[in-house]
Amino acid sequence: NGPILLPLVRLVEICLMHPLDVVKTRFQIQRGTSDPNSYKNLSDCFRTIILKYLSLGFYKGILPPILAETPKRAVKFFTFEQYKKLLNLTPLSPGLALSVAGLGAGLTEAVVVNPFEVVKVSLQANRDSFTEQPSSFAQARRIIKSEGFGFRGLNKGLTSTLGRHGVFNMIYFGFYFNVKDAIPTSPDPTLEFMRKFAIGLVSGTISSCVNIPFDVAKSRIQGPQPVPGEIKYRTCFQSMALVYREEGYLALYKGLVPKIMRLGPGGAVMLLVYEYVSGWLQRNW
């Protein structure tokens, strides 16, 4: 049952945590208090979505991450192991090699997941009722038909996605495995589980705090532009600079709370399942 466990756990996590992803995206695409659709705070966003869409509104754009999950995680962990093996042949220290392997895995993962992210963000930004908005496949066809597969279409915001996933996984893997090796293990299985979970939780939280500006830039590029037909947010760093200049540096951290609520515990669970599944595979294969 080991290999089946990882995608199953991730599927459950997506279904439980997706509402936080919707809230995060809604916060990141709003442009300050002048935006007529802006939310006052986290609770106001939850309340507005519930009143307007009922609970179904929290599951806008859920199909793309579900479809992307298996190839995304397969690419992430497989390439991490391959990069780690290659970097073991270099003079890099083991701790630094883990971080660089995480960076490589994140960049590779970003290329795979970006088209799914474009569809997901466009659906999450759609304020029509859940029953009126297009399906994920219809939205993907619309994007391809109007903009194509390039950097204005299904691969829009790729540089921001590369930054988001690269930075996240560099810290995520590097912090987790370095700190885990530095803190003594416990003979008690429960305490050992809690030790790994706590390290994974901190790892996911720190990674989320560091990469959030890339996430905001990605949402602005992939989401609706302020003036229809006019592209305001074009590239990763141009979008960051624009958000900073017009809305202040705190705007680069929009959606941080729901992001941490999702990726803190989610990141811990994912690393634990990865370790236990890897151990199962090594013992049985």
Account of the 3D structure:
Solcar repeats lie at residues 1-86, 93-182, 191-280. Belongs to the mitochondrial carrier (TC 2.A.29) family. It is a multi-pass membrane protein. The structure is a single chain. With 285 residues, the chain is mainly alpha-helical. Helix content is 73%, strand content 0%. It has 9 helices and no strands. The chain has helices at 2-29, 42-53, 63-87, 94-124, 136-147, 158-182, 189-222, 236-247, 256-284. The chain is globular. The protein starts with a helix and ends with a helix. The mean pLDDT is 86.
Overall pLDDT level:
86
Which overall shape is indicated by the principal axes computed on the Cα atoms?
globular
Helix amount: over 70%
Q: Which structural class is indicated by helix and strand composition?
A: mainly alpha
Count every beta strand, where a strand is a DSSP E run of 2 or more residues: 0
Keywords:
285 residues, mainly alpha, 9 helices, globular, transmembrane
Short description:
By secondary structure, the protein is an all-alpha fold. The protein contains nine helices and no strands. Helices cover 73% and strands 0% of the residues.
What is the fold's blueprint, element by element?
Layout: H1 2-29, H2 42-53, H3 63-87, H4 94-124, H5 136-147, H6 158-182, H7 189-222, H8 236-247, H9 256-284
InterPro entries: MCP_dom_sf, MCP_transmembrane, Mito_2-oxodicarb_carrier
Subcellular location: Mitochondrion inner membrane
Protein name: Mitochondrial 2-oxodicarboxylate carrier
